[in-house]
Amino acid sequence: MPNRLSDATSPYLLQHADNPVEWWPWGEEAFAEARRRDVPVLVSVGYAACHWCHVMAHESFEDEATAALMNSLFVNVKVDREERPDVDAVYMEATQAMTGQGGWPMTVFTTPHGAPFYCGTYFPREGFRNLLQGVAAAWRDKRGELLDQGARVVDALGAPRSLPEAPPPTAAQLDLAVRTLAREYDEADGGFGGAPKFPPSMILSFLTAQHERTSSLRSADEPAPAWQMAVGTALAMAGGGIYDQLGGGFARYSVDRHWTVPHFEKMLYDNALLLRAYTRMGRRPVGTGRDEAGTAALLLRVAEETADWMLRDLRTPEGGFASALDADSEGEEGTYYVWTPAQLREVLGEEDAAFAAETFGVTEEGTFEHGTSVLRSASPPADARRLERVREALLAARADRVPPARDDKVVAAWNGLAVAGLAEAGIVLERPDLVVAAKEAADLLLSVHMRDGRLVRTSRDGRPGTSAGVLEDYADVAEGLLALHGATGEARYVHAAGQLLDSVLEHFADGEGGFYDTADDAEKLFNRPQDPTDNAAPSGRSAAAAALLTYAAITGSERHRAAAESALSPVTLLAEKAPRFAGWGLAAAEALLSGPRAVAVVGDPDDPATAVLLRTALVEAPLGTALVRGDGRDDGGVPLLRDRPLLDGRPTAYVCEGFVCKLPTTSPEELARQLH
């Protein structure tokens, strides 16, 4: 019989709807039931694309005997961490505090009031059964100790915390962050640290911005460490197995330091951030010490293929973007993506198969499991046309395989990141269809996720979920809307971003210049999460700082600018000690150092000269530049467009800082000169 998850909107919860475990969704009803039965609560947290979540589900949650133990001894609560990042955050902090590590699936035993007293991650079936019986026995015989343990955890994690106040990072501190990153940089393979190795998308944006700021301060023959780390990492990832050499898009991480074998799940947030990073790097790769034109072409090719993959494989019928593709298909991780020499011969024939094996590093021994290989760009092809023909044939053959499952819920924050990435890429790559896709995703967010300036976190099939938006949702959606205005000229996106950012200031502020990750009227947990570090995606605080800064540059609002500067305080502390966990904040600090600059482009939207000026602005301006667009007649209530007429009736650009603008120009060359 289906359990209580059958009406959930989360695909992850629906994966467990037919388990013999009597799952409850997160909510007060589950804890009230635990109090009624006088038993502990087992909180299991995961997400739909998680490989080890599937393993534990198959081993334990689908097993009748294990489920019977769970049902008799506990009230069992299943949580989608992507739908409830606040629940995940507070229990992950407890798990890391108790065990020294974390991960998913996360397994937490709590009192009937939600206080965690025992935490872990994945447990194999026999070990899990023993654990269930051991915890139940302790609850029966040593309950006082468990209650004390839970109370101590709640007191420790719920205690007020504040970061030392600091001004935003200076140029010297941002330069120091680069030197710190250089000590952790992998000279041989790109990226930072060892295995497992994650795509440092936000660090790439920071390093690109830092390189642009400092390139004019160096002589032509001086090394450019920021750029060398950024381009070295981007090219290594693009040539590795972490990048889908046939279909585009990046996997979650590489299990080895060489980017060869990925953990195969593909996440929207990774690809949206990497789309933006590769677009930004490829738009103007100056001072590279390499073949600049070839480097730019490769970076922009990866950006374009990533965007095309997002539109092909993640786009939902409502115009949004699904959260992820699973790591597994046919019950095995990576089956959809890997190849053997025999499979190449079957599709391509002997000669082209030999060419493909050499080009993509497919060997008889294999680089993955069971003699299979992950495709990577093992050697530069001498024949580009042949490579394209081979890629198309392999991609068509792969389409006949059983594809990975898709988690098709729409997460507001990650769609905001996608909107920003697609809007910028659409202009730089001269792909209007990407801007249209960004617009459709933004309109879904505004029509389904937003009510009276407040956001819900998720939707599915055009139906909003029940979870309140968290700080990253407000900030990332605002960021996407502001970028989309620059691409479309629609003033409504600026106004909607302003609504969201006003909600940030009203409902998320901590009273000390920072922000909580949840709103003041959100569900109260034993700890109100507040994480300033950038990890897999920008922290809510860093994302808020970036969006507030852009909005202030467009509107002239000192209130929003001051909030952005205060929010960057942790970045100053992290710049020297842990810059890998402050990439988005460091990039925002670079934008602050440049003003940030703002460019207003006005002109008939159908005039090709307007498009040329717009693309010039996006290509030549420092990262973090605020871009607005109008027709030169109606400012639409966007302050930076006020009193910005056409010059001699022609499309015109204004380069401004703090609303003080240089002489307007109709020349793309002059616009580029002013921006440099």
UniProtKB/TrEMBL annotation:
Gene Ontology process terms (BP): carbohydrate metabolic process
Ranges of residues in domain Spermatogenesis-associated protein 20-like TRX: 3-157
Name of the protein: Spermatogenesis-associated protein 20-like TRX domain-containing protein
UniProt source species: Nocardiopsis algeriensis
Phylogenetic placement of the source organism: Bacteria, Bacillati, Actinomycetota, Actinomycetes, Streptosporangiales
